[in-house]
Amino acid sequence: xxxxxxxxxxxxxxxxxxxxxxxxxxxxxxxxxxxxxxxxxxxxxxxxxxxxxxxxxxxxxxxxxxxxxxxxxxxxxxxxxxxxxxxxxxxxxxxxxxxxxxxxxxxxxxxxxxxxxxxxxxxxxxxxxxxxxxxxxxxxxxxxxxxxxxxxxxxxxxxxxxxxxxxxxxxxxxxxxxxxxxxxxxxxxxxxxxxxxxxxxxxxxxxxxxxxxxxxxxxxxxxxxxxxxxxxxxxxxxxxxxxxxxxxxxxxxxxxxxxxxxxxxxxxxxxxxxxxxxxxxxxxxxxxxxxxxxxxxxxxxxxxxxxxxxxxxxxxxxxxxxxxxx
Length: 326
Ligand SMILES: C[S@@+](CC[C@H](N)C(=O)[O-])C[C@H]1O[C@@H](n2cnc3c(N)ncnc32)[C@H](O)[C@@H]1O
Known about the structure:
This protein has eleven helices and ten strands. By secondary structure, it is an alpha+beta fold.
């Protein structure tokens, strides 16, 4: 069934809703989807803000669904229920709801977005856009016709942690490509992801940023290398470039703040689109790196914006950017 023909939404012509072995239904690319493409822009059918009675959520949800137009009711009632039996409305919401932003406790039901299956190595990223009141989904890798398009429901990490999160919060066993690797391949991936977690923790230590910034910067690069190997392309990437920017900013390095702000901005745009709220702030730092709030705690790495190298090849630029010895 085509989603458009099925009248689930008019947002996307790029996807087909099909059976996916071991995962129920899922969304399949009809044609090649290039990295960076906005695949879905979808308004919620309703949000949990509409709940009025915290002591009787099931009844309240039944009232909300009944108040929807007929095709909205049909769309809601056709969604997957991971725990059929009692409280069907609450269980459909639990099985399909997405928070409206990473720190929001309000959830929304998006009939198209709800059809994306989870992958621990997804090829798309969802982002709530508060300005337009829509959930956006962008391809973060090139997707070939016939490939399933997937999102991650969780924060990542080694397989043992992912398994627990998925079971605890979503109630299923993950059958994604990463979880289906051979045990030898999974061990290698797990070792890398575990190392990335450890390094990431160390990067957040303010004393290290102040007194051993070269080590903190090298750790940012090491984590990004791991993410590249593991094909991680989610909000952890712009955040790591932002960490690198903070390290350089603290030590008055305008040229590197601007270069890392540009990378953080580009990664944000890839995951969230041009009008993500963080993009404007990052663009400001590209042109005015000294406006960063913790800029210039020391003058140890002092550079001016014009000192960003222009006539070097990619390798030379990377060496400069990361202050690498070789
Ligand atoms: C939000 S729904 C996704 C769409 C759903 N497959 C459908 O048929 O409508 C989430 C449910 O899909 C299934 N699912 C999603 N990702 C999966 C995965 N990686 N492995 C196995 N099942 C998955 C699980 O049953 C999960 O509870």
